[in-house]
């Protein structure tokens, strides 16, 4: 298919998804537990916009011509990989699905996708809509299954030429090894995080509290980019903590289909238990439990929005990704110290600073080793912005043109120049 024809199908696909917003949002909430209104106005919107963005790129992919040193002409040509694969997680099932499928198809590849075993429903529904949109048979293949079987089959497959993975750092290493040991397929890895948020003493306290509340509690804390290490300058620490606790206590936890609910359950029992274990470890290591800390009710996997104060850098809750509604607040004195401690992590996915001093903010954004840095905001994403990690948070960039290029190989073609008047 030509780029224009691919774009046409993908635009139709986006329209169909938009028309089925309610069904998709319903399935996503049923599967994942996130609030229905967030599924509807957040996740489906991200899917539709991201798909339209890459559909628009489908007929605008171009290389360059090069003036070479000798009597030759060079050109670069973007080519699709052919068959590509993707393994996706359960925290944003449809958004992650489209972040991989959209660019793969727009760039002219086919794709085999494995949704997370916890959340296969929207991927299957999206596959049905793709067929309705006119995608040729075989272009998109959804294979639900477990990681060590279906996932491993994709990672080690000899006929899959490129792999996109989002999930834990632990499994990221496993799939990369499988890719290397099979056909050395290139991989794009989007993995975990332990993202720092620096609250400086000149920050507006209410703004800062709103930012960290969103940074950590959004999606029940199940975000790779969750702002989970909150560094607060010592002079405002007490005032900040009091307000942060007050705000966390107001969050409404419960049935995700009720419109007033902000936090549904954690995705499954494994995650639920894991998070409660982290809370116990925080207590055992001497962090100060300021609010929350318990399950809500005795049915389902609901956890209270939890905040620990006086957290030290070497505590487990400050080092490991919890992936739940557990905030760690740490105290700092100087910016130098905050930068050093912010970088003292194996991860490097996101970071944020809250300050009204542009020089402080600029210094931080250039000092922190993270793929996304927010100044005075959090969880702002866009299909046009590169998204991906530093360090063990992974590599490769997704979204928009970046993701188109990561789904293509770049070929150099050289031809002699005969009797050219110039070189
Ligand atoms: P996971 O990394 O095991 O699962 C992610 C995907 O990888 C799923 O589709 C799963 O089936 C697949 N997978 C698992 N083992 C595999 C294997 N051997 N070969 C190929 N594919 C495999 O994540 P899990 O166990 O669901 O969650 C554990 C922790 O991982 C979470 O608590 C969180 O810290 C982190 N995580 C990070 C995510 C992110 O967005 N970066 C998303 C999900 C989890
Ligand atoms: Mg796992």
UniProtKB/TrEMBL annotation:
InterPro entries: Ald_DH/histidinol_DH (IPR016161), Ald_DH_C (IPR016163), Ald_DH_CS_CYS (IPR016160), Ald_DH_CS_GLU (IPR029510), Ald_DH_N (IPR016162), Aldehyde_DH_dom (IPR015590). Coiled coil: none annotated. The keyword Oxidoreductase applies. Residues 5-413 form the Aldehyde dehydrogenase domain. The keyword Oxidoreductase applies. Belongs to the aldehyde dehydrogenase family. The active site is at residue 190. Pfam families: Aldedh. Gene3D superfamilies: Aldehyde Dehydrogenase, Chain A, domain 1, Aldehyde Dehydrogenase, Chain A, domain 2. Keywords: Oxidoreductase. Transmembrane segments: none annotated. It comes from the Eukaryota. SUPFAM superfamilies: ALDH-like (SSF53720). GO terms for molecular function: oxidoreductase activity, acting on the aldehyde or oxo group of donors, NAD or NADP as acceptor. This is Aldehyde dehydrogenase domain-containing protein.
């Amino acid at each position: 298919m030509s780029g224009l024809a691919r774009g046409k199908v993908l635009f139709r696909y986006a329209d169909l998804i938009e028309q089925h917003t309610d069904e998709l949002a319903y399935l996503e909430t049923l599967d994942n537990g996130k609030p229905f209104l967030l599924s509807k106005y957040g996740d489906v919107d991200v899917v539709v916009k991201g798909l339209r963005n890459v559909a628009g790129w489908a007929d605008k992919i171009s290389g360059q011509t090069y003036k070479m040193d000798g009597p030759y002409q060079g050109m670069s040509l973007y080519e699709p990989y052919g068959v590509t694969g993707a393994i996706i997680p359960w925290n944003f099932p449809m958004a992650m699905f489209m972040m991989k499928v959209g660019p793969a198809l727009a760039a002219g590849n086919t794709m085999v996708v494995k949704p997370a075993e916890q959340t296969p429903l929207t991927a299957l529904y999206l596959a049905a809509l793709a067929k309705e949109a006119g995608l040729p048979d075989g272009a998109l293949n959804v294979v639900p299954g477990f990681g060590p079987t279906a996932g491993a089959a994709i990672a080690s497959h000899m006929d899959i030429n490129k792999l996109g993975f989002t999930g834990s750092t632990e499994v990221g290493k496993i799939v990369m090894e499988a890719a290397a040991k099979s056909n050395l397929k290139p991989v794009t890895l989007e993995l975990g995080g332990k993202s720092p948020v620096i609250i400086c003493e000149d920050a507006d306290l209410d703004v800062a509290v709103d930012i960290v509340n969103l940074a950590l509690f959004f999606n029940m804390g199940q975000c790779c980019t969750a702002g989970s290490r909150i560094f607060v300058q010592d002079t405002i620490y007490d005032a900040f903590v009091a307000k942060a606790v007050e705000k966390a206590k107001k969050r409404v936890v419960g049935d995700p289909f009720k419109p007033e609910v902000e936090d549904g359950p954690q995705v499954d029992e494994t995650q639920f238990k894991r998070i409660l274990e982290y809370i116990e470890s925080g207590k055992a290591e001497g962090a100060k439990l300021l609010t929350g800390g318990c399950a809500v009710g005795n049915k389902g996997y609901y956890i209270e929005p939890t905040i620990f104060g006086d957290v030290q850098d070497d505590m487990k809750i400050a080092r490991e990704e919890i992936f739940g509604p557990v905030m760690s607040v740490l105290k700092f004195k100087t910016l130098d110290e905050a930068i050093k401690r912010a970088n003292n992590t194996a991860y490097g996915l996101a970071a944020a600073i809250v300050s009204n001093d542009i020089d402080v903010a600029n210094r931080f954004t250039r000092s922190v080793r993270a793929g996304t840095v927010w100044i005075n905001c959090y969880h702002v994403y866009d299909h046009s912005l590169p998204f991906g990690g530093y360090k063990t948070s992974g590599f490769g960039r997704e979204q928009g043109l970046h993701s188109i290029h990561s789904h293509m190989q770049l070929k150099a073609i050289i031809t002699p120049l005969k009797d050219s008047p110039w070189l």
